[in-house]
Give the backbone structure.
Amino acid sequence: MKAPHSTSGSRKAISARQWFVSDTAEEGDLSLINFLQSCLPDKSRTTVKQLLRDRFVSVDGIAETVANRSLQKGQKVELHKYPIPDEIHHPLLEILYQDEDLLVCAKKPGISTVASGMDRQHTAMRILSTHLKTYNPKIKLFMLNRLDKDTGGIVLFAKSRDAQEYITRQWTEIVEEQVYHAVIEGRPEEDRGILLKPVADKQNKDHKEDPASLIFSSENRIFNSDASSSAGVASYKVIRHGAYCSLLEISLKHGRNNQIRRQMRQAGLPLAGDRHGGSIFPELGCVALQCTRLVMRHPINGQRMTFKQAIPALFRRLMQTSASTSETKTPLDSKSQEKKRYK
C-alpha cells in the first residue's frame, strides 16, 4: 500500500516544497536567502525575506528566520504551507520535531497523552492542538503511541487521519526502535531476556508456579509473530544492579504501546513508584519508566530520524537506594519539590 500523500500544497498562496542543497553548489552561494531565491525565481527577494520572517521556512526540520544563515551541502530546506509554530512553553511538554505530517514531542510525568477518565482537558494532545491552532485553525492531531500519565518520554502524533492510519498499519516497518529505561525493585534472574506478553489477571492469579515464568523467557526464544499474541513483547538487558533496584534497558519488539508496567508487576518486580504494583516508593510522584530513544523512517520521504531523551537523574538516585529506605518512602533527599516530577 502506498504512503499517504503529504498534506502540503492545499493553500493557494503558498505551495509547500522541499529541496536539498546540492553537492555541486558553490561555497559562496550557500546562504539561505540566495538558495531560496534560486529555488523560487518567481518571488522577489523581499517576499522571500517575508517568508523567512514569518516562519514559513525550515532547515533540516527546524524553523529558520535568518536570511544570511549559511547552508551545508546535503541539508534539507523546506517551504511550508503554514507558518511553523513557535516553541511551546510548557513545563511538561517539548516539541522535538514537526512537519506537515508528524509531530514528535517529549512529555514529563504528570500529564496524560490523551483524554482518559475525568482527565480530558489537561492532556498532551489537547495542549499541543491548542498551540498549533494559533497558526493553523484547521489542524488536528491523531495519536500514534501513548505513555501513561505518570511516565515520561517520546510521543508521536500524526497531523492527518490518513497519516495516522498508514503509520499504524505499517508500524513495524516505519518504527525501527523503541527503547525504554526503567528502574525495577529487585532483579530478574537473568541479565538479558525477553518480556512476554502479559497474561490476563485471572490466568496470573490461578498460576501456581513462579509468576516470573509467565513473563520472562530466554533471550533466544522465538515468539509468535502474530500481532494479537505478541503485542507488548520486548527484550531487556540489565544496565546496572543497585543495592535494591535494577536499571533496565527495554526494547519494544511488537506493538505501538508498551506494557512494561504490567509485565513487571506480574513478575513481582514492580517499577519504582508503581503504587498498584507494591512499590516501596508510593509517594515518588511518578513511575520510573522513560521512553529514551525512538528511531523511525519518515512515512513520506523515507528519511531516517532518531529522537533521544536522557535517562532521568531520579533513576540514578534510585539506584543508590537500599531496601531499608522504604521507611522514608522517597530517595529524593530533602528536595521535596522533586517528589512530584523529575527532570
Observations:
- The chain has three domains: 1-8+85-169, 17-79, 173-331.
